[in-house]
Amino acid sequence: MSQDTPISKVGRAARNVQIAGLGSKVGARWGAHKARRIFADAGRKEELDRAFELKTAEDVVKRLGNMKGAFMKLGQMASYLDQGMPEHMRKTLSALQQDAPPMSHDLVVGAITAELGAPPEQVFAEFDREPIAAASIGQVHRALTHDGRAVAVKVQYPGVDQAIKNDLSNADPLLRIMGRAFPSLDPKPLVQELTERLVEEVDYDLEAQNQHKFWTYYQGHPYIHVPAVVFEHSTQRVLTTELATGHRFDELLTWAQEERNLAAETLYRFTFGSMYKLHAFNGDPHPGNYIFRPGGEVTFLDYGLVKHFDQDAVDGFMTLIKAMVIDDDMVTYRSEAIRQKLLAPEAEEKVSEEQLRQYFGHFYEFVRYDDDYTTTPEYASEMVRQIFAFSEATDGIAQYTNMPPNYTVVQRINLGLLAVFGELEARANWRRIAEELWPFVDGPPSTRMGEHIVESWGDGTTPPLVD
């Protein structure tokens, strides 16, 4: 596809041909793969599995990596669930996380002119032609407003909104592909939830509202920073925000362990503080959306994928946490998990209390004990293995588990955050920090950061009011 071709002109049919071809190719290879495994010994089966996984991942990257829109975005999401996948498959899928090829400057000028009423050189005092970031839905340019503010201008690819809606109107090929990639998981709730979130993600007006909500709540916070939205230069397809400065994740990895621990603590406080205070999750937790500064300060970028929860959903999350972590009450845990459709009704009779502890307890491991805990890559990997039944340790419970829509984004955040923590080898008493945030505990500050937050900003119960 030419850089100068609006995506909507490519058409859904052409993209569906690529996806359908990918589905057929994977399906045919799967049948042949199963036939070869029948008479193979254990060593040969492992070799065959490795070859199948690698070739399938290569096909996915080859097809989706050339596409902008829903299929590439969903392919990227699958690639972020990489901890715990076979290493060769993980490395191949990681290619989808790289920046997409940028669109030409003429297209950028046309898009901004159509949305803001004038070309960028008139709208802004300065506008960099080269993007500072490019992804599956849009790209970002550095600019300077006429009143002297340094800003980031995110420009949506022309036609990508309609392309995504067209792509998502027929998700069957994608369902088949995801079913092959994760055979133990019913992909329908995942695709359903992502469909809703992706349709929202191409609406920059909605993203601006979400970002402003987070900015309003966290304004003045000593560690958590959310760039302000410049509404006068923002529309449904152009989003202008305060330009964030600092250090990227790769640089953070070279810092002292104490600095990495502080950064992780801020990530944790933002993620779960937002859940319990704002009833909202910013659902795109990969490292590229964080800007770091020494002392634990973090700027959080990209509010296109935000999940809002009602009080019943938040109460349900808290009931499960309290039953597993505080009370060790597996009867309540099982009942609530069935109510939330995390477990099938048959689990009432088929799943024992000990099975519940062993299977679900792992997801709460780093907050179950009142002690310092180092989050390792192995812990993040094992969490993925539990969810997708890559491990044999599920002891029969996996057949009764499910992924209801509310948990699609929640698990994406959990997995993404723990993958980041694993790379940082972050260490803290996560239980004490969690108790500061859990409304049913409302514990006192447990770290110097927690004390500083309460002294300079408050406990978050009554957020600052702004116009």
Structure write-up:
There is one protein chain. A hairpin with a 3-residue loop joins strand 2 (133-134) and strand 3. Helix 1 runs parallel beside helix 8, helix 12 (257-278) runs parallel beside helix 20 and helix 18 packs antiparallel against helix 19 (405-424). Helix content is 53%, strand content 9%. The strands form 4 sheets. Strands 1, 2, 3, 4 and 6 form a 5-stranded antiparallel beta sheet that branches. Among the domains are: 7-98 and 172-190, no CATH class; 255-467, no CATH class. Residues 1-31, 52-68 and 79-86 have low confidence and may be disordered. It has helices at 12-37, 42-64, 70-80, 87-93, 105-116, 120-123, 160-168, 172-181, 188-201, 204-218, 249-252, 257-278, 311-326, 330-339, 347-350, 353-360, 365-368, 377-388, 405-424, 430-437, 448-456; strands at residues 126-127, 133-134, 138-144, 150-156, 224-225, 238-242, 280-282, 290-293, 297-300, 306-308, 373-374, 427-428. It has 467 residues and is α+β, with helices and mostly antiparallel strands. The radius of gyration is 23 Å and the shape is globular.
Mean pLDDT: 80
Extract low-pLDDT stretches. 1-31, 52-68, 79-86
Q: Count every helix, treating DSSP H or I runs of 4 or more residues as helices.
A: 21
Task: Give the helix/strand class.
Answer: alpha+beta
Largest sheet: 5 strands, antiparallel
Alpha carbon gyration radius: 23 Å
**Head-to-tail CA distance between termini:** 45 Å
Say what oligomer this is.
single chain
